[in-house]
Amino acid sequence: MARQLHPVELTDAERAGLEDLTRRGTASARRIRRARVLLLSAAGMPDRQVAEGTGCCVATVANLRRRFAAERLGALAERPRPGAAPMLDGKATALAVGLACTEPPSGRARWTMRLLADKLVELGVVGTISDETVRRTLKKTNSSLGRRSSGAWPS
Q1: Is the C or the N end of the chain the one with fewer CB within 10 Å?
Q2: Residues 69 and 40 both lie in one domain
Q3: Contact at 8 Å (CB) between 32 and 59?
Q4: Any alpha helices (H) in the chain, and if so which ranges?
Q5: Which residues of the chain have pLDDT under 50?
Q6: What residues make up the domain containing 137?
Q7: Predicted local confidence at residue 58, as pLDDT
Q8: Do 94 and 41 share a structural domain?
């Protein structure tokens, strides 16, 4: 058996905590899988067998071993993921929904996503915003204006 670059050696308390975590099943699936990887790694299993036993790839096992060596049980926690912050926070979303529920501008039968986006920019809520972002935001709030109905869009 090959020597592991980052061997996992658990204290009795860590082992008991990980076993309890995997038995209860109340944590996220990722956290439970990470706990299982650490338990199997501590039992001396090679990375390939741990990966097959837990349903993840060998690189994931190696990365988790490395994180465990640096952070101990902190390796179970989620790390922040990259991505842009939402364009509209809670207040801005509430304003967009409230605006969509008001009377549309004169000469218009209803609010369009483009009109709502332009109005949010005009009010200074955001610097720029696309009509698609407004639509997705309204859809998440279960607003009927954020849904695409069969009659509203050409085929």
Answers
A1: C
A2: yes
A3: no
A4: 12-24, 29-42, 47-54, 58-71, 90-100, 113-122, 131-140
A5: 1, 149-155
A6: 90-146
A7: 95
A8: no
Confidence at residue 145, expressed as pLDDT on a 0 to 100 scale: 63
pLDDT for the residue 151: 46
Q: For the chain, how many structural domains are there in total?
A: 2
pLDDT of residue 5: 77
> What pTM, to 2 d.p., does this model score?
0.56
pLDDT at residue 102 in the model: 92
> Do 52 and 107 have their domain in common?
no
Amino acid at 98: G
Can you read off the two tokens belonging to residue 94? 């509430």
Identify the pLDDT of residue 155.
Answer: 40
End-to-end CA distance of the chain: 61
Q: Are 45 and 51 in contact (CB under 8 A)?
A: no
Residues 68 and 94 in one domain: no
Give which of 40, 14, 44, 18 is closest to 31, Cα–Cα: 18
- 8 Å CB contact between 93 and 141: yes
Burial of residue 21 (number of CB atoms within 10 Å: 0-12, 13-18, 19+): buried
27 plus 65 within the same structural domain: yes
**The two structure tokens encoding residue 147:** 């849904």
